[in-house]
Amino acid sequence: MAGISKKTVHDIFQNMEYGPSSTSFATAQSWLEKHSRTLGFFTDGKFSCPAERQSHNVTDSNAEVVCSIVCANDQDVASVASSASAGYKTWSDLSCYQRAKVLHRLAGVLQIHTQCVSEVCELSQSSTSPAALIRLAQYYASWAQLRDTLLPEWNPRGVVAVVVSDDCTVYSLMLKVLPALAMGNAVIVVPGGTTSLPALLLAQLFMEAGIPAGVLNVVTGSESSLGVKVAQNPHVNYLTYSGCKKTGEALAKASAGCGVPMTFSFLLSSVCPFIIFDSADLDSAVDGVIEMAFKKKKDCRWVLCVQESVCDSVVSRLRLRMAGMKCVPLASDMDRSLIDTAVQGAQQQGATLIQSCSPPPAGNLYPPTVLCGLAPSCDSVVSPPPGPVVPLISFRSSAEGVTVGNHSPHGQAASIWTEDLTLALESAKSLSVGSVWVNCHSVVDPALPLCGRRESGNCTDGGREGLYQFLRPSLSPSLTHSTPSSINYDVFGSAASKCLIPEGFDPSSVPRFYSQLVGGQLRKADSGCSRSVLGPGGVVLAHCPDGGRKDVRNAVEAAIKVQPGWMKKSPATRSQSLYSLAGILEKKKRDIATSIHTQTGVALEEADKEVELSIYRLSEWAARCDKEQGGIPFLPQTGSALLTPEAIGVVGVVLPSYKQILSLVSLMGAAVAMGNAVVMVPSEKYPLPALEFIQVLQASDIPGGLVSIITGGRDQLTQALANHSVIQSIWYWGSKEGCQFLQYSCACPLKRLWLHYEEEEKEEEGGKIWMSSNPSLQEELWRKAVVWKCVWIPTA
Question: What pTM was estimated for this model as a whole?
Fold first, then answer.
């Protein structure tokens, strides 16, 4: 017939053209028309469009206005937070079964309205598979049913704020919203530009599923400034962020000191390695590169790492597959400028280009591009440009491939391609990332967690492990809301230590001079200074080193040398070392108890009881070393997955002033049992028990440098811990100002924080917490000491 194209399958395959779009958006347009194309925020179970508010336009991929969104002000945020607080009381009073029924109904509602959800997401340039959202709702409905059975002694946090950046996906948003609701929290969503419309639609569908009014709220506006306003509201108990790093850092610094725990997932800013070994099926690997690298919107930025022996073969296959491919739309004109700058810089450094066609002179379109022949230190490798541009570097051996894969400061994910299963598993274990995909990429399921490392994030989303960020142990104190203090972050912790000159001198009682433990050795402070330690009556009991930044640096340098070897030891070996440590502590319990009694003035019987419990706690951690394991979760798709807990690395701990030995061994035991090294700062007021404990450590077979104990000013040492890039996590008991400083400074470089206002905890209550045998407290300690790794292994 005339006018009909006679292209063969071979022609279409060679050309790789996109077919015509069949999306009409009729259902989405109808939904928008019902709201007069002006949407406000969603609160108390209904849409609200207050008058005299600023608004911003939502545009589609053709830059045409879809609708306008109302921007909330301070009054609106207060109203939404109040509604969420009331909704939390209603929602938390329901049984687990009743909450599960609502989420199960949500899965059914999503199935009914699949077309509308899909079209609204597509219109907003945030396309997400409705099937993936249905799977999320079904998975977390089951967890809502099982919360009290499988997670006893854990309580919901209250009102949770979920903030996402402009370019975040709807799936990433719902990966935080649904588990928060399943655990009994109320949620305030602060969506980005591309997720505003889908978030409002989903909020309406939640109401159709029967969720009580006020449990899920959506407040729209500029996500960075609006997120700060939400965090500062006294009704909000927890804030979690997902999106780009720049916006997340601004949010963290602006919200520091509000008394709200915050976690961050910087998936969109992460740089991930795509590693092709010489044992890979090269055709499948190149197909994976095409699918991964040249999509319209990528979840993260990739670097292609190819073994030298097959690099030419991979490049030739890429040239063949990329020939004739169309230009890919960019998110903005700014992305085009970044790409042009990166490509020009790479060419100046000797890179050769593989492009499907010549780039247009201007506009927001760019052809699929591979930058070949780059060095790992090139700007385009360290920070790849946005859009369909992928840098390619080569490596020689398999070990070098893993080293190159760990070269990035990020640690979100990696994709490795090889037909050698042994090589795949060894490489997956050695890569410092949260997810490893073997012969595949970008596969996700809510049953397995997404756990960022280093600059990719400090929280865990998905799986059972991701539920704990929305829960807290029933006995664990939480941060309380406060007004941020006026702190000069540049000079925090830099004040000189107060010099104490004792009144009079008793020659019959010369104070003892203690040394601190740094790198497995007894040392004075690097500065040579010391400080006096006072007893209950103001008498000088001893002198201890006045440690500082250089002492922390020396301790960390020793830790990073010994920690990898300690982590590779079998759990049984670590267990025996901790049992040995507990045995030595038992032999010296009288000396330790006397030190507690002399320093704090507590009764000797009470001090004995604390040491006895410390021995038990160390033995408990020794017993748990080889009991805490991952598993092989059941997945809805073909293939297998491995889930394993891993050590964080180097942990900094600022200890509380009460139960000095019990808190020390509880925190140290949790960190060391899981394979971490630890730098500990004893109580500034009561350092002697920790200094006496150094003798116990030296008599044990714990490797020297794995545990360091540094005394001195709390603020000075906190500042040194926060500013050291190697330390991955800080556990802090101290002042509000110290907590605020850590929240501000640990946004870059990003660290995992566990903060406590020691000033607000009465010593009796704090002591009871450490003396408690509640299993949820031990579970919390263990989970603070590990990160998670998922390894996906597909099967035919």
Answer: 0.90
